[in-house]
Structures are given as structure tokens and as C-alpha cells.
Amino acid sequence: MNSTFLDADQVRALLAVKLAPGSWLTGIPVPDVAAVASIRAPDSENDATWMHLLAAGVAAVVVIPRLVLALVSGLVERRRAARIALPLTDPYYRRLVARSLGRSGRIRAVPYSHTLTPEARGGLDAILARTYDRRRGHHRGARRVGR
């Protein structure tokens, strides 16, 4: 192999490291120095072996570890989901179910230590109507600090 920087032995040593995962996965040996030296001429070496080793190397280093991580993550998620208990009869969850079924719920705005002016009430009603698709809200009087 004619190279300014590397000869066939050095290229073979680098390829042995680069193609090792693919070789381990497929059982195809890494090409020897003669095969490396023969690739300098056009149509002198079949590239199928090289391509299989590169593809298997990507599978060994990228695809298989990601599949293992996805499997482990799925198992952990399934285990955690089975261990969590949701009190679905609590009022909070009943409201969520009612909303998802299209039934209306209530929104209660309780100003804390502040009395709303009529303009502020109108603004709050408009925000609630836009946000929650409600026609009118229910307002309570202000609660005093410390009570």
C-alpha cells in the first residue's frame, strides 16, 4: 500500500481495532496484511467482507447497546408502574375523569387578602373562560391574612 503516512502493517493494526466488534459479532476474521495491501488497486479486493464487518461493528457498538438500554428502561418503567398505587376514588381523580368524559367541573377562585374590583372580576372571568372554556366562574370574598 502506497501511503505517505501508513504502510499496510499499520493500516491492518488500525483496522484490527476498528473492525474488532464486527469480527466478534459475525465471526468473520479481520482481513490480513495481504488483503489490506491488495486494496490499493481497483477491483483487486472484494469489499463485501469489509462492509459486513463495518455494519456488524455499528450494530455491536450502537444498535445492540441501545436495544439493551431500551429493554432495561421498559422493564424498570413497567415495574415502577405496577408498584404505584393511584387512589382513583379521590375527588381529584374523579374530576380528571369527569373532564375527560366531557362533563363540566367547577373552578373556584379565592383571592387571598385582596378584594377584587369589578374590572378584575371581569378579567378573571375572561381568562377562565378562555383557558377552561367556561362561561362563568365562582368568586368568593377575600380571605384575610392570619385567618
- Major beta sheet, strand line-up: 1-2
Number of helices: 6
Instruction: Compute the average pLDDT.
Output: 81
Main beta-sheet annotation: 2 strands, parallel
Judging from the principal axes of the Cα atoms, what is the shape? Answer: elongated
Pfam family, one: DUF2868
InterPro entries: DUF2868 (IPR021296)
Transmembrane segments: 50-76
Keywords: Membrane, Transmembrane, Transmembrane helix
How would you describe what is shown here?
Pfam families: DUF2868. InterPro entries: DUF2868 (IPR021296). The chain crosses the membrane at residues 50-76. Keywords: Membrane, Transmembrane, Transmembrane helix. With 147 residues, this protein is mainly α. The chain has two domains: 8-83; 91-139, no CATH class. Helices cover 58% and strands 3% of the residues. The protein is built from six helices and two strands; from the N terminus they run αααααβαβ. It has helices at 8-18, 20-26, 33-38, 48-83, 91-100, 118-132; strands at residues 108-109, 138-139. A two-stranded parallel sheet has the order 1-2. Helix 2 (20-26) crosses helix 4. The longest helix has 36 residues, at 48-83. The radius of gyration is 34 Å and the shape is elongated. The model has no long low-confidence stretch (mean pLDDT 81).
